[in-house]
Amino acid sequence: MKRNRTLQYLTLAASLLAGVASASAATIPVSGILRGVHHWTADNEYLLDGWVYVVDGAVLNIEAGTVIRGKEAASAPNYGALFVCRGGKINALGTRLRPIIFTTESDDLADPFDIPLADEGGGGRGLWGGVVILGRGRINRPDSEASGSGANPDGSFYQLYEGLNDATDPETGQGLHRYGGSNNDDSSGALRFVSIRYSGKALDANKELNALSLAGVGRGTVLEYVEVYAGADDGFEIWGGAVNSRYLVAAYCSDEMFDMDQGHEGKHQFWFGLQGITGDEGVELNGQPSGGSNVNVPGAEPLGRHQIYNATIIGEGGAGSGSDAMNTRSDYHGSIHNSVFMQFQGRDQVSSVPTYNGTVTHNLFWENVGGRGTVVEVDNAFADPLLAMIDRGQNEKLDPRPAANSPVFTGAKEAPKDGFFIAAPYKGAFDVNDNWLLGWTALYQNGHLKEKGAKTITVSGILRGVHHWTADNEYLLDGWVYVVDGAVLNIEAGTVIRGKEAASAPNYGALFICRGGKINAQGSPANPIIFTTESDDLADPFDIPLADEGGGGRGLWGGVVILGRGRINRPDSEASGSGANPDGSFYQLYEGLNDATDPETGQGLHRYGGSNNDDSSGALRFVSIRYSGKALDANKELNALSLAGVGRGTVLEYVEVYAGADDGFEIWGGAVNSRYLVAAYCSDEMFDMDQGHEGKHQFWFGLQGITGDEGVELNGQPSGGSNVNVPGAEPLGRHQIYNATIIGEGGAGSGSDAMNTRSDYHGSIHNSVFMQFQGRDQVSSVPTYNGTVTHNLFWENVGGRGTVVEVDNAFADPLLAMIDRGQNEKLDPRPAANSPVFTGAKEAPKDGFFIAAPYKGAFKDAQWALDWTALTDNGHLKPVALALVSEQPKPAEPGLTNLWQVVSNNPDLSTLKTAIEVAGLKSALEGTDPLTVFAPNNAAFAALPPGTLEGLLNNPAQLSAVLTYHALAGARTAESLTPGDYPTLQGANVTVTKPEGKFMVNNATVLTADVLASNGVAHVIDMVLLPPAPPQPPLLSATRDGNNLVLTWTGSGASFKVQRKVSLGDANWTDVATTAENTYTVPIEGEAAFYRVVTP
Q1: In this predicted structure, which of 65-69, 134-138, 420-424 has the lowest mean pLDDT?
Q2: What are the strands, taking DSSP E only, across 842-944?
Q3: Do the beta carbons of residue 335 and residue 376 sit within 8 Å?
C-alpha cells in the first residue's frame, strides 16, 4: 500500500489535465532568470538546473499536482534552487489530493524507501538547494558583523541572503539576493499544499540553504499547508517581514525546525515539528539581527513581535544531541501560547536574559530531559499530553493527535479575534478528531502516518450505543443503516463512507439518523468526511462521468437522512403516514415510507417531527456527499441530505452535495441553521424547504448542470399530493436566507426558475445572487405568498422577472470571476472588485448567528468551497490563495452545545439543573475548561432518602460538594473511561467498572453515555453519587513507660504523622516522625511537650 500513495496523487494530477489516467510526464529543464508570466503544469515535470530567479515583475504559476525537481550537483550555484526575488511572485496552489512537490532529481516518488533518512544512515538531506522567497517587508538594522547589508532609497534596510554576493539582473540591475524594505503588506504570492523534500544543500562549509527561506516577506503572501521534509538546515527560517502562516510541517531537519530573526512580526497557528535523532532545537526565535554573534543593536526595530499559537514540537526522543525545545534569543518580544514542546534532550526553554522580553504562557512541556531552563512555571503546564503515537520510522506509527482526556484541553488561552486566528481551545496543533497531515505530506506518502481507508468495514441494520468510525478504515453502508434514539455515531475527520449499489430499496446503502440519535461528523478543510458510492475511485476524478456528460453519476446509492424532533406544521390530508405525537405535536413518515419500528424499543424509524426546535441531532462540518439520490419508487428518490424536523441544536456548516439525483438539500420543518452549503449538479432543486421551516441560513452556493431544476423551492405549507393550504398549519416557513449564490443551467436547460416560493411562504431572502436560469427570476403562489425577497441581484434568467418585486432588488451582471461547469479548474464564483454585489446589501440581523457580510452572494475574497469539496477533488474549482474563512470559529471537539445547555435542554435532568443553579455551578458548565459530568436523572434524585434532597438544596456548600463529586477534569468518553479510580473535582475518587457489558460509576448505572458537548461530555446515570465521609482525625492516648511516652491512636490509613510543640500558645507543630503503625514511643525530656497525630 505504501508504494502506491504518491503514485495515486501523480495519476490524479495528470488525469485532470489530460482527462485520462496517466502518470507519465515530460521533464522541462529551467535555468537562469524568469521574466514575465510562466505557467508550470502537472502534465510535465520541471528540473531546476542551477539557481533559478523569478525577478521583479515576473509571476510563476504552478498548477496543483506539479512536481519540481532540483538538480543534484556538488556546489553552488550548480545544484537546483528557486529564488523568488523582491517584486517577483510565486503562486504554487496545490490541493489536498494534488499537492505541489519540490524534491530532488533522483527521488522516485513511487518508492518511499529509495532515499533513506539521514537518521537511518542515508544521505537524504541536502541533495539540492531549496526555495528562497525574498520580499520587501521590514527588517531591523543589520548588525556590524552582517556582511552585505545596507540602506534602501527610502531609508529602510536590506540584507543579502545568507551573505551571498550582490549579484544583479543584467537587464534591470535588480539585486537578486537582497531582501528587506518598508512594506509589511508586500505580497510574494501564495504557497498552499506544497511539500519540499530533501533540500538544504551547502552554500559553503558553514552555511546551507534552508528548505524554505522567507526573508522580508510581507503579510500579503499566503502560506498554508506547507511541509518541509528531511532538510539539511532549518526547516523554515524567517528573517523579518510579517508573513503569516497556518498548517506548517517541519520533519527530520538537521537544524532548527522553525527559526526567526530580524524582528519578524507575523502571526502563526497550527505548526507541527518532528525531529529525528540528529536534529537541533525545536524553535529558535531572535528579535535582533542575525550576524556573527548574538549582539544587541540599540534601536533595531522591529524586535520580533510575532505571535505563535497551537504548535506541536517534538524533539529527538530517547537519543539526541541535547538540543533545547525553545531558544528565545536577544530582544525577543514575541509570544508563544497553547503549544506543546516535548521529548527534547535539552531544556524546555533557554533565553537571553536580560534582553529577552517575550511571553511564553499556556503551553505544555513534557519529557525535555534538560529541565525547565528559563521557562516560567506560572501559566505553563508540565504533563504528558497523551498523544496517540509518536514514532520516527516509516512504519505507520505516527499519530500526534491527543487523547480525549489529554491535559491539552485544559487551560488554553483564547486566541485574538482578529480575523486571522481560528478559535482552537486546546494546546498543540491537533484536536482529537483531525489529523490534517494526512494525504498531502511526505509524512503520509512515505509511510510515517497510518494509511487511510486501509480496511473496509461493512455496516448494516440498527446502530445502538456509541460508535466511532475512523479514517484508517472505510465503511460500507450495506443497505439502510439506522442510528436510533440514544445512539451516537462519531465520524473522524478524513473518513470515507460508501453506500452499497443495488437496484432497489432497502438494499442500496443509506444512513438514517432517527429521532434522538446523533451523528458527529466533523471533518476539516484538509480532511473532509466523504460519503460516496461503492464504486467511486477517489483518485480518479473522471471514473464516474456526470449525468450532463452522458454518464450515470447521479443516484448510485441512497444518501443521508436526519430525522429530528423539531416542529413541523400539520400534514395535509393527502400526506400518507402522518399523525400526532403524545404531546399533541405532529409527526410524519419520511417520503411516505412504511412505519418501520425498532424491534427492541418500538421507535418509529422513519418518523420525524415533534415540539422541540432546540433539538440536536449532532453536527456535520466539512462533509461531502456524492452521487446519491437512489429511487425509493418510480416517482421518489432519496435526497442527498434530508433534514426532517431537525432542530437548531444541530450544527450544519461546510456541507456539500455533489451529483445528487433529486434535491441537494431538502428541509422539512424544524429550525436547523446552516452556513457554507454547496449544492452542485443536482437533477432537481438545489435547496428545497417544506412544512414551516424556521431556520437561519447564510453562505449557500448552488451550481446546476444542464439538466438541473429550480434553484430554490420554498414552501410554507406541508408537502403532500398537491400544493394545498391547510388552515392554521403553523409554523408557516419563517426562515431567513442571506448571502446565497445560485447559478442555473446556463445556455441550455429545461426552463427552470431561479426561485419558486409556494403556498404560505413567510420567509425572507436577502443579499443573494440568482443567475443563468432558463426560467424566471421568481415565481410565487399568490395570494398565499407572504415572503420578503429584497436586496438581491438577478442576472441572465431567460424567463423574465416573474413575480419578483423590482423595488429593492437589482438586475445586473455580478461580474463573477469564472463560471464553467466542466472539470477544467475554470470555476471561480468570487466577484470582481468592481462588482455591483458590493452595492446596496441589507445588514443582516445581529443575533449571534449571522456574520456581517455587506455584499450580495456567498463569496467575497475567500473561496471557502475550496479544498474539502468534490468541486475541488474533481477539478472544477480553480485553486486560489484565499480559501480559509478565519472569522468562522472552529468549534471545540466535538462541537455541540455546552454542558449547561445539555442539562437545561433535557427535561429528565430538571432536578439536576435546579441543583446546579442553587450550588452556583452553572458558570463551570458554561466555561471552556473541558469536564466529564455524571448526570443523575430526575428518578435518581427522587430515590434519595426522604428529606435528603431538601436538605441539600438548603445547604449550598454541601450540595456543591455532592455535585462536584459527579465531575471529572477533562472530557472522557465511555471508551476512554476504562475500569479504575478517577479523581473528581470534589477530591475523592469514583470507581468505574464495566461488568458484563454495563458501564457503572460506583453503584450507579450509566443509562446514556457520551452526550457530547462543546466543553466536555455527560453520562446520564440512575443514582446520585454521595461522596465518602471525610476521614476522622485519629483519637490519641498516651501512657508512660519509664522514661518514655508511648503514644497510641485509633484510625486507619496508609501512614500517620506524629507532631509536637512545647507550648499550647505556639501556632506551629514540628514533625517528629511518619509511621504506618498505630503506636509510637518518644523519650520524656526536661521540658513539657504536647503531641498530636495527623494523617498526611
Answers
A1: 420-424
A2: 931-936
A3: no
- At position 965, the amino acid (one-letter code) is Y
* 26, three cell numbers: 515530460
Torsion of CA 108, 109, 112, 117, to 10 degrees: 70
Could you tell me the CA-to-CA distances from 417 to 280, 421, 676 in Å, in that order? 34, 7, 20
Asked if the domains at 26-446 and 899-1021 fall in one CATH topology, the answer is no
DSSP lists the bridge partners of residue 701 as 678, 741
Which residue has better confidence, 206 or 75?
75
Q: What is the average per-residue pLDDT within 850-878? A: 94
Q: Which pairing describes strands 26-34 and 810-811: parallel, antiparallel, or unpaired?
A: unpaired
CATH 3.40.120.10 fits 899-1021, yes or no: no
Domain ranges for the chain, please list them.
26-446, 455-874, 899-1021, 1036-1094
Fold of 455-874: Pectate Lyase C-like (2.160.20)
User: What pLDDT was estimated at residue 1058?
Assistant: 85
Q: What is the pLDDT of residue 828?
A: 96
- 432546540: which residue's cell? 614
Q: Do the beta carbons of residue 430 and residue 401 sit within 8 Å?
A: yes
User: How much is the pLDDT for 302?
Assistant: 74
Q: What is the pLDDT of residue 722?
A: 47
pLDDT of amino acid 1033: 54
Q: 3-state DSSP helix/strand/coil percent for the chain, to nearest 5? A: 10, 35, 60
pLDDT classification of 905: cutoffs 50, 70, 90: confident
pLDDT at 94 over 60: yes
Cα separation, 868 vs 493, in Å, equals: 11
CATH architecture observed for domain 26-446: 3 Solenoid (2.160)
What kind and span of H or E run contains 397?
A: none
Task: Put residue 405 in one of left, alpha, beta given phi > 0 → left and psi -120 to 50 → alpha.
Answer: alpha
Residue given cell 431538502 in the structure block: 666
Query: What pLDDT shows up at residue 790?
Result: 94
One-letter identity of residue 956 = P
